[in-house]
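Weekly sync, protein design subgroup
Attendees: M.S., D.O., the rotation student, P.L. (late)

Item 1: inverse folding check
M.S. brought a backbone from last month's batch and wanted to see whether the design step gives back something sensible before we order anything. D.O. pointed out we never logged the input encoding, so this time it goes straight into the notes. Structure tokens as presented (348 positions):
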């Protein structure tokens, strides 16, 4: 594909066109509402390998393009399918759609999502030329609605919070390829200090008033705080995953704990995955109290054993299925061991 295959009056130089003899052997498959993956079909003379049966004997390039609004068969390269950001919890953020929506704002020159091996994603915003009259807060106030719009169409773990947005000056260059797409790896390297500082600021404990709470008081505070995050946690023993807590809410809850709860100077023991590790409000309150008082924190093996016991108690009997299958769950819990045997009896 090349931008050379266009008439003189066509000024869309940054959109590529396949030459006539290639058109029958190339296909653009939609990835979302805007982006399409370039797929090479069987019969193309330059295709020596296949990696998909959809269509048969095709080659999926993983290259992503967006079509021109008015010119048929003109495509602009925007990135690759493997431009994904894997967070610390294993969730994978596809930044291209988020960046594309934010980049449409007139004040934004470039938008780059970051967050590899971090708890939550962040965003670098490069100010467009002519925005020097706006300070960073004023700039972000004007751009924030489009970020909220992008968040509303993204998975919970992909959403960008305001404190994870970094506004960069208009005279700062954003590394781009000759196809006018961002050089993601180069950007992460060049702006590593800024990215690190953003996460360090997120971790800092800026407590207006440290709450020194007992275990029952911690439970009440966690339940009330959970409601502010949109979680309907019934009681202290309600498992977080049953009420749909996602990774972003877990990170936010931990952040609120660090900002409001007295941990006796032991904030480092409030690990990034503490909310998920504890699993419910009762366990979380006990661990936070132990962190502050210097007491023994339940180790992961104990937490796992407790969770396994609760599952065994909950699922220790099986209903008859169409009158044919009866089940029973036999359990043996010994010190340091969990032995679960499942007996299924069939009448047929």
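Designed sequence read out in the meeting:
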């Amino acid at each position: 594909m090349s931008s050379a295959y266009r008439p003189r009056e066509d000024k869309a130089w940054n959109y590529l066109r396949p030459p006539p003899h290639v058109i029958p052997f190339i296909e653009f498959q939609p990835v979302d509402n805007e982006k399409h993956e370039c797929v090479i079909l069987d019969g193309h003379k330059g295709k020596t390998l296949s990696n998909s049966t959809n269509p048969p004997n095709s080659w999926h390039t993983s290259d992503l393009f967006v079509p021109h609004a008015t010119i048929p068969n003109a495509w602009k390269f925007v990135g690759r399918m493997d431009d994904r950001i894997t967070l610390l919890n294993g969730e994978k953020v596809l930044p291209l759609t988020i960046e594309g929506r934010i980049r449409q704002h007139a004040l934004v020159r470039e938008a780059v999502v970051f967050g590899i091996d971090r708890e939550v994603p962040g965003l670098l915003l490069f100010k467009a030329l002519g925005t020097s009259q706006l300070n960073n807060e004023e700039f972000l106030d004007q751009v924030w609605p489009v970020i909220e719009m992008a968040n509303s169409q993204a998975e919970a773990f992909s959403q960008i919070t305001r404190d994870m947005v970094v506004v960069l000056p208009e005279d700062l260059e954003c590394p781009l390829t000759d196809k006018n797409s961002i050089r993601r790896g180069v950007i992460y390297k060049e702006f590593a200090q800024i990215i690190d500082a953003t996460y360090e600021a997120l971790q800092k404990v800026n407590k207006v008033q440290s709450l020194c709470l007992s275990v029952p008081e911690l439970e009440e505070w966690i339940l009330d705080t959970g409601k502010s995050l949109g979680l309907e946690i019934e009681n202290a023993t309600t498992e977080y995953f049953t009420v749909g807590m996602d990774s972003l809410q877990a990170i936010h809850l931990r952040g609120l704990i660090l900002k409001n709860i007295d941990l006796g100077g032991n904030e480092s023991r409030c690990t990034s995955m503490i909310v998920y590790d504890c699993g419910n409000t009762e366990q979380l309150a006990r661990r936070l109290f132990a962190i502050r008082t210097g007491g023994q924190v339940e180790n992961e093996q104990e937490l796992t054993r407790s969770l396994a016991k609760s599952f065994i108690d909950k699922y220790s009997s099986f209903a008859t299925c169409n009158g044919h299958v009866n089940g029973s769950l036999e359990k043996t819990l010994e010190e340091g061991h969990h032995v679960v045997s499942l007996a299924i009896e069939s009448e047929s």
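Discussion: Confidence is low (pLDDT under 50) at residues 324-336, 343-348. Residues 312-346 form one domain.
Action: P.L. to compare against the previous round before Friday.
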